[in-house]
Design a protein that fits this description.
single chain, 375 residues, alpha/beta, OB fold (Dihydrolipoamide Acetyltransferase, E2P), seven-stranded mixed beta sheet, 10 helices, transferase, rRNA processing, iron, MeTrfase_TrmA_AS
């Protein structure tokens, strides 16, 4: 992949860009194997590769510059860098960015100046559905001061971009490097972006987490479905379930599935998908995954965990050892915390593992690991 910004030393987000892609995959596989060298692994599956460009379905743009000449991209020590031509984004993003720049002036949304702590517009967050190309656009604002101006200007933008399906404003008043705040204000009646992976309907609300590489995410979910189907389990927990991607892929009409996620918005999306599919033995609830698991009485045959980068932690590992489900399926975006958790899961053996390259040109990757309780 060629990137003019990388060549000009203006952006180094893709720190492995000059490394041949096959070598990138091998480096990641070697890293994963080194982390797990103290554990016996029955089946190492080959890494799942990714498209090398235009694979991202989401852009997180810092807004800087002036209201008349905004810059969408990142901030560097020597000033802002425009990333609207970043080759990681699909071609469909470029005309959207081109219209958002004059729209910022129309709406009078002064870019936030970090040093002076002045201005209103901090970030633009743009997501695209791989199902139909519809878009979700979020304006991250310092306050609600310019909210009515934003509302008044939106009809022009919606006329120019009919693919805009969901628009909202997030209020982030804290003068710190925090992407978004707790308050989300709907600017369109519809607040659901419809997605579909492997013929499984999924729904994304403004504050719901969703993978940024839908091509690799589809293969990750499908792999989990295949592995779970081979186990023929009748009951399953999906902890840290998000909008339900894993559980909805793995569940069958006969399976008892419980999905737990702390975000009520994500749970609402998962419930909608389950109803659409017609899964009747499914329960999704907005709870803390660790508290739910350590307080629940019934023991499922399989527990699937998909935690944030910190991993599942000592408390949940200890409880899983005691609870003793037959199988654990661990999906991780941080293999280092996963390795720490597996060391704590002393009663479990690694049966199968596979790396998924969700983030080409970087050191990051996802990994799916199947563990079985030792007899």
């Amino acid at each position: 992949m060629h990137c003019a910004l990388y060549d000009a030393d203006r952006c180094r987000s893709c720190q492995w860009l000059t490394t041949p892609y096959s070598q990138q995959l091998q480096m990641k596989q070697t890293h994963l194997q080194a982390l797990l060298r103290e554990f016996s692994v029955d089946d190492w599956r080959p890494p799942v590769d990714s498209a090398q460009q235009a694979f991202r379905n989401k852009a997180k743009m810092v807004v800087s510059g002036s209201v008349e000449r905004p810059v969408l991209g990142i901030m560097q020590p020597d000033g802002p860098v425009d990333l609207t031509a970043c080759p990681l984004y699909p071609a469909s993003f470029a005309p959207v960015f081109a219209l958002l720049k004059p729209f910022i002036a129309r709406a009078g949304l002064t870019p936030y100046n970090v040093a002076r702590r002045r201005g209103e517009l901090k970030f633009l967050l743009l997501s695209e559905s791989s199902l139909d190309g519809k878009l979700m656009l979020r304006f991250v604002l310092r306050s609600t001061d310019k909210l009515e101006q934003l509302r008044a200007a939106l009809p022009w933008l919606q006329q120019q971009l009919p693919q805009l399906s969901v628009i909202s404003a997030n209020i982030q008043p804290v003068p710190m490097a925090i992407l978004e705040g707790e308050e989300e204000i709907a600017l369109t009646e519809n607040q659901l972006l419809a997605e579909q992976l492997n013929h499984v309907p999924l729904y994304i609300r403004p504050r719901s987490f969703f993978q940024t590489n839908p091509g690799v995410a589809a293969r990750l979910y499908d792999t989990a479905r295949q592995w779970v189907s081979e186990l023929q389990v009748a009951s399953m927990w999906d902890l840290f379930c998000g909008v339900g991607g894993f559980g909805l892929h793995c569940a069958t009409p006969e399976m008892q599935l419980t999905g737990i996620e702390i975000s009520a918005e994500a749970i609402a999306c998962a419930q909608r998908s389950a109803q659409q599919i017609g899964l009747e033995k499914v329960r999704f609830a907005a709870l803390d995954s660790t508290r739910f698991a350590t307080g629940e009485g019934d023991v499922p045959e399989l527990v699937l965990v998909n935690p944030p980068r910190r991993g599942i932690g000592a408390e949940l590992c200890l409880y899983l050892n005691r609870m003793a489900p037959s199988w654990l399926l661990y999906s991780s975006c941080n293999a280092e915390s996963m390795a720490q958790d597996i060391a704590r899961l002393e009663h479990y053996q690694i049966r199968r593992i596979q790396l998924f390259d969700m983030f080409p040109h970087t050191a990051h990757y996802e990994v799916l690991t199947l563990l079985q309780r030792r007899q």
